Amino acid sequence: MADGSRRAHGRPGAPGTGPAPPPDAGRGSGRGGRRARYVVRGSRPAGGVGAAIRARTAGAVAGRGGDRDGVPVNVNGGLRVAAAYAWRLLVLGAAAYACFKILGRLQLVAVALFLALVVTSVLRPVANLLARWLPRGPATAVSLFGSLLLALGLLSLVGGLVAGESDRLGQEFAGGAGRIERWLEGSPFHVDHAALANLQEKVTAYLSEHRSALLSSALSGAGRVLEVLTAAALALFCSLFFIHSGERFWHWFQALLPESARDTWDRAGRAAWRTFAGYTRGIIIVAATNAVLVGIALFLLGVPLALPLTLLEFFAAFIPLVGSPVALAVATVVALASRGPVIALVVLSLIVVVGQLEGHVLHPLVLSWAVRLHPVVVALSVIGGGVLAGVIGAVVAVPMVSVAWSVFGALRTPPVPDPRPPGEPAGKLSGGPADEPTVRPSGEPRR
């Protein structure tokens, strides 16, 4: 009896060897009934039966030339990984393209919101400083409207200088055109006078033939001025509330989120704002430094319109790698028409000097802590933004890419434990000790 019991326990399927199969296991008609035994994944038949089933399944897979997911078995593993990354990159590219197209449709609102964020990042520290002696409302009004009056005064000064020197500049440019013609006719160019006269006639004829098109472009430009004024008014309105109570907007937005996602959104939002504000303040410092240096050089060289050209250099510096050379090229043309080729060559050399100073001194000192992008990434961002949205896209491309990279780094790094008690609210977005970053813009944890 004992030997028989042991033999019974040793046989597969004998009583006592384990749980019995379900009563309806194996039932069914035809192929469907046989297939129903093994539809549950993770259950492997024991012994030779399982091996036979796996061998038969492998033979069927080899017969149709693929694995269970329908992917051919002869595909390289590296190619599979590359294909997986490729379609994900295509999805991300399509999402970025859709975002730019939506912003293009809502260009007026997007530009106004971007300007409001720029103004807020610059003037909020000023308002926080004034709030030590004034209530929050008057401090916000003084910082915002005082800066607005200062900007309008500077623009009116530049306009008055240009209007006052228009007659003299016209005479200088007319004489400068003659000097340029004589310079081209001489050594080393030796351009024929008849060819220059023919070129001048063609330019005059082109302007005469396309006068109506130029006039319509000017009228459409007047319509664009109205849009610019509307965007400026909307930006001023948004800036007033962002400077006064920006943290309230952020806490209101967080209250709309699920409680489990609030910490993640808080880290991402603070990293984004820290990078955007740092980039904005840094690029203003870089632009002001470039403008001061170029203005001093133009004044010493006696180039007319030195102040307007300085202001042009300031605004052009907001487009990295491209804006400053374009502004100096305009200054070179003005210097060539008014002061001659020698002064023009000196102004042209400023492109190299300012570019080297900006790339090797100002950017590492001012922007390295807020923006950590390779120059190739910056160049591609500027070109891509310009292709998709023109000048506005070229201006906003680098800060948008910087913010996206900062958010990625903040979410990739584990958060530092909050030393505050659980009931204490989080700090403001700026202007207080609670704003000290828990994560660096590059994604590295703060030590």
TrEMBL record:
Locate the compositionally biased regions of type Pro residues.
Answer: 414-424
Q: Which family is this sequence assigned to? A: Belongs to the autoinducer-2 exporter (AI-2E) (TC 2.A.86) family.
Chain segments carrying region Disordered: 1-35, 413-447
InterPro entries reported for this sequence: AI-2E-like
Q: Where are the transmembrane segments?
A: 82-100, 107-127, 139-163, 225-243, 283-307, 314-336, 342-363, 375-408
> What keywords tag this UniProt record?
Cell membrane, Membrane, Transmembrane, Transmembrane helix, Transport
Per UniProt, subcellular location reads as:
Cell membrane
Q: Can you tell which superkingdom this protein's organism belongs to?
A: Bacteria
Pfam families on file: AI-2E_transport
What is the membrane topology here?
A: Multi-pass membrane protein
Q: What is this protein called?
A: AI-2E family transporter
Q: Which GO terms describe its cellular component?
A: plasma membrane
State the Gene Ontology BP annotations: transmembrane transport
